[in-house]
Amino acid sequence: MKRLVIAGVTGSIGSQALEILHGHEEIEIVGVAAGSNGAGLLEAMAQTGASAGALNLQGDIDLDGFDIEVGDDAAARLIREVQPDLVLNAVVGFAGLAVTQAALESGADLALANKESLVAGGNLVMDLAARQGLAITPVDSEHAALAQLLSGVEANDVERLVLTASGGPFRGRTAEELASVTVSEALAHPTWNMGGKISIDSATLMNKGLELIEAHHLFAVPYDQLGVVVHPESLVHAVIELVDGMQLAHLGVADMRAPIAWAVDGGNRRRLDIPRLDLASAGSLTFEEPDIKAFPALAIAIEAGRAGGGAPAVLNAANEVAVEAFLSGGIPFTRIPEVVALTLDVLGSEVPESFEELTALDTSARSQARSFIEAAA
Ligand code: MG
Question: Is 266 in the same domain as 330?
């Protein structure tokens, strides 16, 4: 039996993981962690039989009779205590970095859905995994697709990796039209059913920028060999281009249960009861260049990725603050990339050399981003 901890168990990825893992004969869920949804956490513990739980915020629920860590970094403490074989990190945002670090330091392989830990902490995280001899298997659909495609070819035969982007709910709109879009329009993703933060990131195309940085670290590929193509049907998840001019594509319905199952099973396949792709009824697949004039976040993210050092961490922190401000009605949609760019101008050349310095830079970038938001309010 493989002993698994799921962090972020009450979110979109976490709940789909519970569905997939129900009745799994080789994986035992020994711990579950949530951010603030105490009732959801207790439900997940009851459903899985996990004896250990963690809640980052103390909710107004009765935790008596349950072995539950509460407070800051509760999920990381649970992992260090339980010492699982595998951690599914489905925490949203920079908070996921502490989970990634705790997993790798306690000797657990990672099924990684938290892209922010690689965006912000890429070099530190990849170095730690290598030192510990542990595997990081991506849950993100594009990266899971790339890993599957790459496993079938010689590394020297690959010229370029291409991630597809749905284009989000505002594909085709101009910058002027984007200035007045609402929160509920931005949350209405056309093809993927996801949590709030990632839905907004998909609408700005920041998500694809974060994913390029994630791919750069996961596959050790320079930015010149990474590309993005907009594909509104979300049926092709990634493409690799080979030295003989041929390309391999990964296709399937847009259903996160497939990459989650593949990643928690250590990169192995098993039969899943999910919808099958019927190419004839799909009819046509379309592709186009991303519009970086209307969606500058993608270009800003690539620039931060190329700059390296702490720039991607600053990008990520400022983006999280700006997305929260947009979701709470504090700033217009088009202000999100502006806040990120302004914050990068101030702090983008910092180079954190430890997890402590990285966390300090994240904190500074958040307060800098907030001051740009307040200055304009
Ligand atoms: Mg993705």
Answer: no
Q: Kindly give, in sequence order, each residue whose CB lies less than 8 Å from that of residue 103, ignoring residues fewer than 6 positions away.
A: 5, 79, 84, 87, 89, 109, 110
- Helices 74-82 + 96-105 axis angle, to 10: 20
Q: Average pLDDT of 18-22?
A: 94
265 Cα–ligand 1 center, Å = 19
Give me ligand 1 centre to Cα 115, in Å. Answer: 9
Distance 353 CA to ligand 1 centre (A): 28
Do 158 and 281 lie in one domain? The reply is: yes
- From CA 122, how far away is CA 127, in angstroms rounded? 8
The answer on 170 and 271 residing in a single domain is: yes
Q: Given the structure tokens 């180079």, which residue do they identify?
A: 351
Taken as a whole, the chain contains a residue count of 377
12 and 110 inside one domain: yes
**204's tokens:** 């700005």
Cβ atoms 63, 38 nearer than 8 A: yes
Distance 63 CA to ligand 1 centre (A): 35
Q: Compute the average pLDDT of residues 159-176.
A: 95
CA 140 / ligand 1 centre spacing (Å): 5
How far does residue 46's CA lie from ligand 1's centre (Å)?
30
Task: Tell me, yes or no, whether 177 and 282 share the same domain.
Answer: yes
Q: Examine the fold and report which residue of 101, 117, 138 is the final residue of a domain before the chain moves on.
A: 138
Confidence tier at 364 by pLDDT (50, 70, 90): very high
118 and 130, same domain (yes or no): yes
Ligand 1 centroid from CA 116, angstroms: 12
pLDDT, residue 40, reads 94
Contact (Cβ atoms closer than 8 angstroms) between residue 206 and residue 297: yes
Domain identity same for 133 and 150 = no
pTM of the full predicted structure?
A: 0.94
Query: Residue 211 C-alpha to ligand 1 middle, in angstroms?
Result: 7
On whether both 11 and 95 belong to a single domain, the answer is yes
